[in-house]
Design goal:
The structure is a single chain. With about 325 residues, the chain is α/β, with parallel strands linked by helices. The chain has eleven helices and eleven strands. Strands 3, 4, 5, 6, 7, 8, 9, 10 and 11 form a nine-stranded mixed β-sheet that branches. It has a two-stranded antiparallel sheet with strand order 1-2. The chain is globular, with a radius of gyration of 23 Å.
């Protein structure tokens, strides 16, 4: 009895080519990143398009972007390429790990929380190369980097990332920041309403959390001014041009000329380490998760790795 011929199946190299061009925004840049010729990259994408029967990429004045069909294909392409690599990672023994671990995190987290854990992890697993990705920009948003396969793990705000496997880490308290000349008497909601309030841009998770808090408390946002750089915001506040609300980690060490105080009613962001659920069992990710939680727990003498809002490792004050 004859069998129907198997349908054509894309190769991993073709899927990698599509992903690289979509991510780089041009065939030239993608070819340079992959170390192949532009013609071979174009051929690989062309064969993939021939199999799907429709264009997956289109050229625009701003660069090469995915078509609607291409966006749908990209999600599966990234999963397929990642799954192929995970075949080898799944076979590893937790005592002899190798490969690359890419972690996306907010700059404040990358500065104050991750370095001790990464140093401990490297000593225990010298065969693993660790890469830290900036999770504060639109291009490298921590959650987006994780979902698109550019990161293996990401530090995110718990409760705002559905569909991910989360390991709670710590609470990061938000603080009201004003010129030091104001004094250290408690902050009030009236004070927040009465002057210019500097915050990161609206797409930023910090902005969204603070805005929700202010709206819940009935604080007017008429004086809201956005700026993407924490250092610029703090400089403006230090010179009496307004006030701000930022996480404690982003304020360490607090620059001169400023005072930081708890918010009325309190506000914290619960930080968690996120991985894709179907990858949580991989020895590499399990080992890093265990190392990070142990390192953070050790920095809170006698305390759990998820202290209540306001409690924090003394070294960070």
């Amino acid at each position: 009895m004859s069998r129907d011929p198997a349908p054509p199946t894309p190769t991993l190299s073709q899927l990698r080519a599509l992903i690289a061009v979509a991510q780089a925004g041009s065939f030239g840049e993608a070819a340079a990143e992959l170390g192949v010729s532009q013609s071979s990259l174009s051929e690989a994408v062309g064969r993939l398009e021939a199999m799907t029967g429709r264009p997956l990429l289109r050229r625009t004045p701003g660069g090469t972007v995915a078509t609607a069909a291409g966006e749908r294909v990209l999600a599966h392409a990234r999963a397929a390429v990642q799954a192929a690599g995970d075949v080898l990672l799944a076979a590893q023994d937790s005592g002899e790990l190798s490969g690359t671990l890419r972690v996306a995190a907010y700059r404040s987290v990358a500065t104050h929380l991750l370095p001790p854990a990464l140093a401990t992890f490297r000593r225990a697993h010298p065969g693993v190369r660790t890469v830290l990705l900036d999770g504060d920009t639109e291009e490298t948003d921590a959650e987006l980097a994780l979902r698109t396969g550019r990161a293996d793990a990401a530090v995110v705000v718990q409760g705002h990332t559905p569909g991910l496997h989360l390991t709670p880490l710590v609470y990061d308290e938000y603080l009201f920041v004003a010129p030091a000349a104001r004094g250290d008497h408690p902050a009030t909601l009236e004070e927040l309403s009465g002057q210019t309030l500097f915050l990161p841009p609206g797409r930023d998770q910090c902005h969204r959390l603070v805005r929700q808090y202010l709206e819940r408390e009935g604080v007017s946002l008429s004086g809201l001014t956005e700026n993407p750089q924490d250092s610029v915001i703090l400089g403006m506040v230090a010179h009496g041009l307004g006030v701000t609300i930022l996480p404690r980690l982003a304020l360490h060490p607090l620059p001169g000329g400023l005072v930081s105080l708890p918010l009325p009613g309190g506000l914290s962001r619960p930080l968690a380490l996120a991985v894709l659920p179907w990858r949580a069992h991989l020895p590499l990710l399990r080992a890093f998760t265990d190392t990070l939680t142990r390192t953070l727990a050790a920095r809170v003498p006698g305390g759990p790795p998820t202290p209540p809002p306001g409690a924090w490792p003394p070294a960070l004050h």
